[in-house]
From TrEMBL:
Subcellular location: Cell membrane
Keyword Transmembrane part of the UniProt annotation: yes
Keywords, ordered alphabetically: Cell membrane, Membrane, Transmembrane, Transmembrane helix
Name the UniProt record assigns to this protein: Chromate transporter
Family in the record: Belongs to the chromate ion transporter (CHR) (TC 2.A.51) family.
GO molecular function, one term: chromate transmembrane transporter activity
Membrane topology: Multi-pass membrane protein
Family matches, as InterPro entries: CHR_Transporter, Chromate_transpt
Membrane-crossing segments per the record: 7-29, 74-98, 110-128
Record's keyword annotation contains Signal: no
Annotated organism of origin: Sporanaerobacter acetigenes DSM 13106
Gene Ontology annotations for the cellular component aspect, listed alphabetically: plasma membrane
Length: 173
């Protein structure tokens, strides 16, 4: 099986079985890219996530684009990006068609309420997975902790936080 087909199938699965957006997809992306296919190391994945976070646009699409490019060049990025968005497009078209019929259904409301904790769990899983590889020493823990505090509680703009972290990282490392 060619890398393009493997990329398509992997990102089609990621796009089809992830709920809650890009952060919720990260554990699935990590498993497919690092554990199953070995297309990159955990360190390379963290580096790509850093670029994905700073790039405008959805995390899942940016991840697919960058990872696809790393694995199979321009065509890899096209295939991975199309594969990750295809399930969402199909699902949205189906939902739009039937929504007026079921919009007041208690079962639909209950289903969405049940999905919320799963999404939170996936986001927490992604955070833990990324932090295992991002916090390489005590200095990185301090930098991450201080910036988390400033962004979360002092309402520092995230872009400014990225600039500060990059500057400190360049000076310290």
């Amino acid at each position: 099986m060619t890398n393009l087909l493997k990329l398509f199938i992997s990102f089609l699965k990621i796009g089809g079985f992830s709920f809650g957006g890009g952060y919720a997809m990260l554990p699935l992306i990590e498993k497919e890219i690092i554990d199953i296919h070995g297309w990159m190391t955990a360190s390379e994945f963290i580096d790509i996530l850093a670029v994905v976070e700073m790039t405008p646009g959805p995390i899942a699409i940016n991840s697919a684009t960058f990872i696809g490019y790393k694995v199979a060049g321009v065509w890899g990025s096209v295939v991975a990006t199309l594969a990750v968005i295809l399930p969402s497009i199909v699902i949205i078209l189906i939902i739009a068609h039937f929504l007026s019929k079921f919009k007041d259904s208690l079962y639909v409301e209950w289903a969405f309420r049940g999905i919320r904790p799963v999404v939170l769990g996936l986001i927490l899983s992604a955070s833990i997975g990324v932090s295992k590889n991002a916090f390489i020493d005590f200095k990185s823990v301090i930098i991450g902790g201080v910036l988390f505090y400033l962004i979360s509680f002092k309402k520092l703009h995230p872009i400014l936080g990225i600039v500060i972290a990059g500057t400190i990282g360049a000076l310290v490392y």
